[in-house]
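Recall from the previous lesson that a structure prediction takes nothing but the amino acid sequence as input. Here we apply that procedure to Lipoprotein-releasing system ATP-binding protein from Muricoccus roseus. The sequence below is the only information supplied.
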Amino acid sequence: MPEPSLALRGVERRYRSEAGELPVLRGADLDLHAGEIVALVAPSGTGKSTLLHVAGLLEKPDGGRVLVEGRDSGNLNDDARTALRRETIGFVYQFHHLLPEFTAEENVLLPQLAASRPRRDAETRARELLGAFGLDHRRDHRPSRLSGGEQQRVAIARALANAPKVLLADEPTGNLDTGTADRVFTELLAAVRGRGLAALIATHNPELAARMDRTVTLRDGLIVPA
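The prediction returns the following tokens.
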């Protein structure tokens, strides 16, 4: 079997407070391969967001390893980790987190410019991605002029802007009504499958989870089949 696009090996994460130490991840293991879409379904408070943040190199684990395309992120300095995350991982949040002062196109353009892509190439890719999500006619609009579903489509396009190998999504349709959520999720799945990405998508919705390749959950700080 080919090397996983993302691998977690014995990942631990704990938080410290005045009340003491709270272990959230206690040795989590996961392999995520190119072309595979995995649902992460677990009750609130069990560590789904923590797991995604550690997997996405937004937080450092307290133990274990996070390997991205075989590279151990623990061996990298902060600048190298940031570069690896920018070049390899796309992240979609429940709330779109679009920059309100910029247009839809500019929101998809900015991460590419941060990765030193030539502006003309970045503009072309931004327009291609927005067009793929049916947003050609909305690319000059700021987020405040977009519907919730349109905002989340822009956020997905932004996550795909740097052609990541891994897509992580934290309740990407949790803030949308049922009909809009189904349409946006269908487009998200099509975009991920069409690009052969490895994807880990957290959702509370069992119907959406059933449309993915397999489902895992968090139990006692470990990743196990759901």
